[in-house]
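#dry-run=false #mode=assembly
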Amino acid sequence: MVYNKRQWKAWLYLAPALILMAVFTLWPMINTIRMAFLNDYGLMSEHGGTVFKVGIANFVKVLQYKRFLSCLTTTMLLCVLTVPISTMLALLISVCLNSIKFLNRFLQTIYFLPYVTNSIAIGMVFAAMFNIVGTIVSPDLGNSSNIIVTAGIINNIIEFFGGQPIVWINAGSTYAANIAVMVIYIVWNALPFKILVLLGGLQSVNKQYYDAAKVDGTSRVRTFFRITVPLLSPMIAYVVITGFIGGFKEYSSVVGVFGPEMGPVGDSKRLNTMVGFIYDALENDNQGRASAAALILFVIIFIVTMINLYVSRKRTHY
Amino acid sequence: MKVALQNLTKVFPNRNKKIKKDVVAVNDFNFEIPDGKLIGLLGPSGCGKSTTLYMISGLEKPTRGKIFFGDDDVTELSPENRGVGMVFQNYALYPHLTVKQNILFPLQNLKGKDRLTKDEMLRRTVEAAKLVQLDELLDRKPSELSGGQQQRVAIARALVKMPRVLLLDEPLSNLDARLRLQTREEIRRIQRETGITTIFVTHDQEEAMSISDEIVVMKDGTVQQTGAPQAVYDSPVNLFVAKFLGTPPINVFDGKIEKGVLYIGTDAVFSIAHEDCEVTVGVRPEGFIPDGGSLSCLIESIEVMGRDISVVTKNPASHNPFVRSIIASDTSVPSSGHVGFSLKPYKVFVFRKDTEERIFAELMPLGK
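#status=ok
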């Protein structure tokens, strides 16, 4: 009796969290699966009384979509490029930060700033930095004398060193240039969190390992690769896995730099990502297709994470 | 390899803004460690013994003074160029490497003409592992070893590059009591077999006394006394050393010298040729004879320990609440009431009350 009473109380205390989770986590998940397997499902039409057949038509449609493959490619490309670069940079920076005594706290704060800044705002700053190279027509002088305008600090720097300005993000830019800008932006944006995690790991590494290495005459490079990296391997695995998961959900960074058109002027949607693809389907009242795409994205993230875990289990030795 | 320390001093800059004084961790340390000996640096925590060890290893730079290995001045050399092997307090074994890889690690660091062939490295690793009796466990990870085994891996790793000097920082503090006894014999054996000059740091006087050829007792960064363990125990130069060495600890009494007679409290115990002064008297537990002598104590309890009995008594002049004496078990002692002790003169040390320095004056039985 007493036991049952206690159990009843336990459920009562758990109830608020459980109810919230059921409404906002569990039900959406189930509903996504339901919508994905109802052919041509749309929320409006459902309320209009349409009855949908169960099937995989949504998945077929998604895969047939021209844009789907380009969204997947862009997402994959951003993942594969940004995760290794940002992880290695973060590792270097955190090792350096950890070895500085002077201004240590101040620098840590600076490196952490991007994390607390709105990513759309950062994106707009990046867009400004990589801005236009082009001509504008001065109305006073007629159309004969065009003035060449180069705005954006990156192109200014390139020109300062005598290089040719590059069209990064404006009309006429190449896909490679667009991706380059996105990679720089995403890496910069991803650094703070990774530095935070790795620095935390470094600070918890016992100093005696380094003393022992010093007594044994271990070179700096060898100390880094044979001691620091293995000791940090659990943290490195963590930032790589979360990095990939975040990378597959990339969306707002592209919006930040290129705006909701997700591409340079004249070629909108060129840099659309998987999440962008899902939003587009939702905007067209195509919840069935959006759900199918979301499930595909989930499966991809799941597989990649499994691979990551498998590799890291082999590589993190203790 | 003989190791000589000359005027070795380490001052740490003070980070506490309230106190402007710098911290002197080691103050003017002079000592010569003979070749092939096992030396124990002994003292309470914070006395500068670890700092001294770190300076010998090269991990800390001395503020003043010099360190010689043989005739080489190594004061300015970095750790790897000194040829020291070091065992750290918590061993600092690399957790991701196996025992074999851990022991190999220092050898793989060697460059240029010192670089060994792979076979030679392996041979030396196995040899070092055999020395510490770990050759069966070469493929284990440190986490799969017991504390004592980890300790031995750390020693093997320190020895594999054949150091000139072996340094051990609190080598036994992380082991349980039984392992500690076993491991200290092991350290003694390994040191004897290799003949490497070994310096180890400990706060446990029993540990230091039991295996060292010589001990160095430190307090507040200064050396109090050096010498063979028995010599230091038998003739401490000041009250601190007397109190620090020995289990059970020495019994300390207030006393005085008046007209050539040494008093403990009000009991006259010895005649002594020294001017009158206030003194502190230390009596080793084994220095009491319950023969109705002049030192009168009230018996509190008697603990039988087999070979000996431990008589716990009270005396108003004692610094501690109880006076503990150890007496052969075939001696008859009353189980309660007062007991009169006479004292063995070579177990009694007299110190000045003000400076706590030993008064080296011969103690003679009264009335002679």
